[in-house]
Every structure is written in structure tokens, then in C-alpha cells.
Amino acid sequence: MDILQIFGDYVHLLGMIILLAKLWLTKSCAGISGKTQLLFALVFTARNADLTIRYVSLYNTILKIVYLAITYCTVLSIFLFFRKTYDRKRDAFRIELLILPCAVFALFLNKAFETIEVFWAFSVYLEALAIVPQVYLVSKSKQADSVVMSYISCLGLYRGCYVLHWLYAYKHSPNSQLEHIAVASGVVQLIFYFD
Amino acid sequence: NESVDVHDEL
Q: What value of ipTM does the predicted structure carry?
């Protein structure tokens, strides 16, 4: 456990809460990409599939469940509760263009060819790209909602913390291996957020 | 010094 990692986790959580709070307070999903949220639901489902077979810590288990719960709530809010305000026309990015390459990459580029490892790799690749429909929507509507921008900033800060945490751990711990998949995807992800 | 396992992270 590392202070950067914990800070990253909480900033990530804060971002998700900000978005869900915006949805419920304004009762509108204007400016929010339902497709990005759908991708994040897929990301967390794939990554947290190991909840069923592995126990790391109470902190880990609780946050994984909270992340899943918030993301599913957000998806339900967009596609069910406030679907009348969902801007289907503008949120037009074809997500299969993101999902399919990630699935192919996960099958060939993973730590071990096991279900959990492939799921994990898939979740890391897809997380790097999941924000793309949101960025596409913001660029199309030409007006950036400040709450959505705070959400995007939180997610960018979270990934930044994680990448720094990995690099720091690698530098200071002789027996740690640099996880190339995670670091490379993390850097790609950061590029999208700085955009 | 503990090594970092990214699989144990969120």
C-alpha cells in the first residue's frame, strides 16, 4: 500500500460520486456519455471478477464492490431513470471499435492465458480507452460542462497517481517487476485525459 | 520492501 495509490483510489471514487450526484441533482444526463459509463461498467466487471476467487484485503474488497455499485447505478440512471434526457444522437461513438481490439489484445497480450488474467488485461486496455466516447461527446457539443470536466480531471488525476506509484515502487523496491502492460496502458490513458 | 502486484490494486 502506498499513499499515492490510496490517494488515487479516493480521487477515482470522488470522480464517480461527482458524476452520479450530478445525474441525480439535475435529473438529467446532458453532457454525459452513456457509452463511456457502459464501458466503465464492463471494465470493473472484468477486473473485479477475481472478487469471487481471491481475497486481497478488506480495503480492496470494499472499494471494488463500491466501484461496481456506483458504476452500475450510473449506467442505470442514464439508460433507465433519466433516459429521456440522454443525448443518444450526440453520443454516437461506436464502442465496438474500442471493445473488439481490447478483447483481441487481451487474448494475446497477457501475463498468463487464464480466464482471470485475460479479463484483467482486457479491463486494463479498455479502461485506457473508455473515456474516448465522453471526449468525443464533449468535442461535439462544443460546450464543456464544468461538472463533467471535474469528473474527467478526477479520473486523470487517479491514473496519474497510479502510474507514479508504479514507477516509484519499481525504482525503490529491488524485487518488484515493472508491469509493462499496466504502465503502458496507464500512460496511453493519461494522454486521453490531458487532451 | 514489498513488491507491487498490480493485480492486487484497484
A: 0.81
- Residue A91, classed as helix, strand or coil, is coil
Chain A contacts of B4, Cβ < 8 Å? 2, 165-166, 169-170, 173, 176, 179
- Please name the member of B1, B4, B10 whose beta carbon is closest to the beta carbon of A63: B10
Copy the grid coordinates of residue A61: 474488497
Angle at A73 between CA A69 and CA A74, to 5 degrees: 120
Closest CA to A135 of A156, A121, A120: A156
How confident is the model over A83-128, as pLDDT tens digits?
Answer: 999 989 999 999 999 999 999 999 999 988 999 999 999 999 999 9
Nearest to B1 among A57, A67, A172 (CB): A172
Q: Alpha-carbon distance A183 to A98, whole Å?
A: 19
